[in-house]
Amino acid sequence: MGTVMLGTEVAKAMKERLIQRTEALKERGTEPKLAILRVGARPDDLSYERGAKKRMELTGIGCQVVELPEDVSQRELEESLKSLNRDSSVHGILVLRPLPRHLDEEPLTRIIDPVKDVDCMSPVNIAKIFSGDASGYAPCTPEAVMEMLDHYGIDPKGKKVTVIGRSMVVGKPLAMLLLGRHATVTICHTRTADLAATCRDAEILVAAAGKAKMVGASMAGEGAVVVDVGINMDPEGNLCGDVDFEAVEPKASFTSPVPRGVGSVTTSVLAQHVVRAAETLSGQKRV
Ligand SMILES: Nc1nc(=O)c2c([nH]1)NC[C@@H]1CN(c3ccc(C(=O)N[C@@H](CCC(=O)O)C(=O)O)cc3)C=[N+]21
Questions:
Q1: Which of these, 204, 106, 100, lies nearest to 152 by C-alpha position?
Q2: ipTM of the predicted structure?
Q3: Number of the ligand 1 atom closest to the C-alpha atom of 95
Q4: Fold category of 140-264 in CATH
Q5: Annotated binding residues, as ranges?
């Protein structure tokens, strides 16, 4: 029986540090604030927004929601983002994605101020993550995986790590963050020849494929660390991960569940990025 890695433990450890930084900002006259830009009302967006608002409140960070109608025009959406860029009371901007199909995300990635881009939409931040420039912001979910590994004392250095999934939101940035910590990273995807063997060979396995319970016991090595990043709905409509937790947990040394795993750390990383942006924008850069 290994250790179950709970997001609440990680979030609790991060919270105290974040409150101190937020208080220090307020003492110097800066009220850190996140703006969430939402188009329409997708259940996934609303769920994340609720968690983000609650987390900001717990850490003393302001949170403003800008809700635009589902049929908003591209021009209006871009104008809305530009006004958040210009608003000096806003330090972090989160554009909930994916956007409705009639909208083009690409121009937004170039409009958003990279210093306020706390969820890594901008090519500037993507390039920084690629080049290992710590002044950039990684997407919150991959950074939540790193926070979880650190909290449980799992050092990726020199470890064989397999990441299932190569999305720009999780798989690819996560591989870069792991590489930055000297892991030996293999990225698996739909064209990988022998997925099960590649997963079994990993000392740390991260599932970010978006396929409910695709990782069974035959895909986890004995004593491996298994991190589940999946956010799926099972046939009964409950949130579930990419990992079959019951089958894998008995073999693994550490396992993160869904819900109550990485997902519940993501908003703490978001809060950390807003605080860092406020420190940068108010000239109170941390040493
Ligand atoms: N730019 C952008 N970045 C995102 O990161 C992003 C997004 N847009 N759009 C929506 C999706 C969805 N998403 C979730 C993350 C965590 C939980 C989460 O906290 N899940 C809890 C359970 C919550 C529950 O039970 O409802 C858990 O895993 O323990 C949910 C949803 C991030 N998203």
A1: 204
A2: 0.94
A3: 1
A4: Rossmann fold (3.40.50)
A5: 165-167, 231
pTM for the whole thing?
0.95
* Span from the CA of 193 to the centroid of ligand 1 (angstroms): 31
Q: Which of 208, 173, 175 lies closest to 189, judged by CA? A: 208
Of 245, 266, 268, 274, the residue with max ligand 1 atoms within 8 A of its CB, to mutate for a pocket test, comes to 266
The CA angle 137-142-148, to the nearest 5 degrees, is: 110
Atom of ligand 1 nearest to the CA of 263: 28
81 lines ligand 1 (CB under 6 A): no
Q: Give residue limits of the domains in the chain.
A: 29-113, 140-264
| pLDDT of the chain, 287 residues: tens digit per residue | 799 999 999 999 999 999 999 999 999 999 999 999 999 999 989 999 999 999 999 999 999 999 999 999 999 999 999 999 999 999 999 999 999 999 999 999 999 999 999 999 999 999 999 999 999 999 999 999 999 999 999 999 999 999 999 999 999 999 999 999 999 999 999 999 999 999 999 999 999 999 999 999 999 999 999 999 999 988 898 999 999 999 999 999 999 999 999 999 999 999 999 999 999 999 865 54
Kindly indicate whether the domain formed by 29-113 is annotated with CATH number 3.40.50.10860: yes
The answer to whether domain 29-113 and domain 140-264 are alike in fold is yes
**266 Cβ inside 6 Å of ligand 1:** yes
